[in-house]
């Protein structure tokens, strides 16, 4: 009966199967093979293709799947590269929506030929392609510009990061070919800032990329542009204020990571001018203090993603207004060494409870130390508000209800799916057992928790049974006995990092192999109790584990 179905219907049916079953179905007969190939078309899957002679056969076969996302690697100026690019242009170009040439060395002629064969392109990554811009003559011929403009008519995202030779003229010619551009990255580009420059003067320098030229571009594209990445550009406060004042510009995403000169006052002005921001990255902006977070919390009520890593001046006082961010999905305050966690916990719990959609929280490398006056309280994360005070050693029976908490704690974040507690060194088994009870949590990092023992591991396994990614590197007190009890709770585990867990032996590999049948990536590097022979046996027994990191196992150098 299946043989009589139209190919389109058969392909539709197969698309509901898991990827592994689709591959099996492709072996039935020729009709099923082509139906499975069509079903395997996935717009969010990126294929990484080395630009080498050996890739020619693969490129031809990928054309049958109408692959839409491709990253090309190992490009140079050789004849082999030219031949492979021609093959990609012919077989894959008509279907491509996303193309990455990151770090490639290619000629302008090869670039033009490739781009003009991709009429449906929406995303283009030219980051690190310095050879294209070194001469400053890219797209200087009118007939070439017209061809590229037709090919990039639907381009929405352009990545020009790490281009040391990018200048005003080449930037203007390339961006002029993409009238529908919505997302632009100029990360780590060398941008010159001249506060005395007159915008009415000639703006297209052939030698430098100037901020006044970028500002002119923003004014022209204000109605379309929604995302801008200026990380690592040393943007001064005056430039940030000028950016925020562009008439008609309504950014949704802005990345300023590593712009160390940005001031708290400039961020406050930005929050007033660009109130539609939903994603903001201020990580590594070392001049920022509590006022910046207060301004963000009060001015950007629709913010969904906030990153403020490595802000050494940020303290608890900055979190007092965080409760205004009701739409917050992810919060990253890793390596903010002056944050104790108490005000953060209060902000997440007051006055209406935590943000209902908060799914990701990163507190990595936050020591969160606060010495209490009470002589019996230890200096651990449990005293800071996020984790409750330590409980008696007897665990609660499964039938008992968890008592209502009188103080804010991590338990309030019921929607949490990702939690990073790397190197929060004062965490104990007791505090983890009391708070890490998230049935839907998918990603968890407890790496570098030197006090974590088998007791804490089992408690985490019971409280977080849906984990898919788990990092436990350098947790040196974990042993085989803990994994015997914990592994059966983690049926969905796919990525596991156990590097430098020196008490583990090959028995843990046996336990994991039996219990975690969905595991695909395992890292046991520098585990002195695990031998290379045990790793090979594990791989032979579990061929679906595609990557096993085993550097220096057994103490080998």
From TrEMBL:
<dbReference type="InterPro" id="IPR001810">
    <property type="entry name" value="F-box_dom"/>
</dbReference>
<dbReference type="InterPro" id="IPR006553">
    <property type="entry name" value="Leu-rich_rpt_Cys-con_subtyp"/>
</dbReference>
<feature type="domain" description="F-box">
    <location>
        <begin position="3"/>
        <end position="37"/>
    </location>
</feature>
<protein>
    <submittedName>
        <fullName>Leucine-rich repeat-containing protein 29 isoform X5</fullName>
    </submittedName>
</protein>
<dbReference type="InterPro" id="IPR057207">
    <property type="entry name" value="FBXL15_LRR"/>
</dbReference>
<dbReference type="GO" id="GO:0019005">
    <property type="term" value="C:SCF ubiquitin ligase complex"/>
</dbReference>
<dbReference type="InterPro" id="IPR032675">
    <property type="entry name" value="LRR_dom_sf"/>
</dbReference>
<dbReference type="Pfam" id="PF25372">
    <property type="entry name" value="DUF7885"/>
</dbReference>
<feature type="domain" description="F-box/LRR-repeat protein 15-like leucin rich repeat">
    <location>
        <begin position="153"/>
        <end position="342"/>
    </location>
</feature>
<dbReference type="GO" id="GO:0031146">
    <property type="term" value="P:SCF-dependent proteasomal ubiquitin-dependent protein catabolic process"/>
</dbReference>
<keyword id="KW-0833">Ubl conjugation pathway</keyword>
<dbReference type="InterPro" id="IPR036047">
    <property type="entry name" value="F-box-like_dom_sf"/>
</dbReference>
<keyword id="KW-0433">Leucine-rich repeat</keyword>
<dbReference type="Pfam" id="PF12937">
    <property type="entry name" value="F-box-like"/>
</dbReference>
<feature type="domain" description="F-box/LRR-repeat protein 15-like leucin rich repeat">
    <location>
        <begin position="410"/>
        <end position="539"/>
    </location>
</feature>
């Amino acid at each position: 009966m299946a043989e009589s179905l139209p190919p389109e219907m058969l392909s539709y049916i197969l698309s509901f199967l898991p990827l592994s079953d689709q591959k099996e179905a492709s072996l039935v007969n020729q009709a099923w093979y082509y139906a499975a190939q069509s079903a395997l078309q996935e717009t969010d899957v990126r294929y990484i293709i080395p630009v080498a002679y050996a890739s020619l056969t693969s490129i031809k076969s990928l054309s049958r799947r109408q692959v839409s996302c491709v990253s090309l690697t190992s490009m140079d100026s050789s004849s082999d590269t030219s031949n492979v690019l021609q093959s990609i242009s012919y077989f894959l170009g008509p279907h491509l929506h996303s193309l990455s040439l990151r770090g490639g060395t290619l000629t302008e002629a090869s670039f033009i030929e490739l781009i003009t064969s991709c009429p449906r392109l929406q995303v283009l990554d030219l980051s690190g392609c310095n050879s294209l811009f070194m001469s400053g003559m890219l797209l200087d011929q009118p007939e070439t510009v017209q061809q590229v403009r037709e090919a990039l008519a639907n381009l929405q995202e352009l990545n020009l990061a790490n281009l040391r030779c990018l200048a005003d003229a080449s930037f203007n010619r390339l961006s002029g070919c993409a009238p529908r551009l919505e997302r632009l990255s100029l990360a780590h580009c060398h941008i010159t800032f001249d506060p005395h420059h007159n915008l009415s003067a000639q703006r297209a320098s052939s030698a430098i990329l100037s901020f006044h030229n970028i500002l002119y571009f923003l004014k022209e594209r204000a109605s379309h542009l929604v995302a801008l990445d200026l990380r690592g550009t040393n943007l001064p406060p005056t430039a940030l204020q000028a950016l925020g004042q562009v008439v008609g510009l309504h950014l949704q995403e802005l990345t300023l990571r590593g712009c160390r000169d940005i001031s708290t006052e400039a961020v406050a002005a930005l929050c007033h001018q660009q109130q539609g921001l939903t994603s903001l990255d201020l990580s590594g902006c070392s001049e920022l203090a509590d006022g910046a977070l207060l301004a963000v919390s009060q001015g950007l009520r629709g913010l969904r993603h906030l990153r403020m890593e490595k802000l050494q001046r940020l303290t608890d006082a900055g979190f007092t207004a965080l409760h205004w961010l009701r739409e917050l999905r992810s919060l990253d305050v890793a390596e903010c060494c002056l944050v104790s966690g108490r005000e953060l916990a209060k902000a997440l719990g007051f006055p209406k409870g935590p943000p209902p959609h908060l799914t990701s929280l990163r507190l990595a490398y936050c020591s969160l130390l606060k010495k209490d006056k009470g002589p019996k309280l230890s200096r651990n994360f449990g005293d800071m508000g996020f984790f409750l005070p330590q409980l008696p050693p007897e665990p609660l029976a499964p039938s008992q209800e968890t008592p209502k908490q009188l103080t804010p704690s991590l338990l309030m974040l019921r929607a949490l799916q990702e939690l990073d507690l790397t190197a929060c060194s004062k965490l104990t088994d007791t505090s983890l057992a009391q708070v890490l009870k998230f049935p839907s949590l998918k990603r968890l990092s407890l790496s570098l928790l030197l006090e974590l023992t088998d007791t804490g591991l089992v408690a985490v396994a019971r409280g977080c049974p849906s984990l898919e990614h788990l990092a436990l590197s350098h947790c040196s007190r974990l042993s085989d006995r803990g994994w015997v009890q914990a592994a059966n709770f983690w049926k969905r585990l796919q990525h596991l990092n156990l590097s430098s867990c020196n008490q583990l032996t090959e028995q843990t590999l046996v336990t994991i192999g039996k219990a975690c049948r969905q595991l695909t990536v395992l890292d046991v590097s520098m585990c002195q109790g695990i031998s290379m022979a045990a790793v090979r046996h594990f791989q032979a027994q579990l061929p679906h584990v595609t990557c096993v990191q085993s550097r220096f196992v057994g103490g080998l150098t």
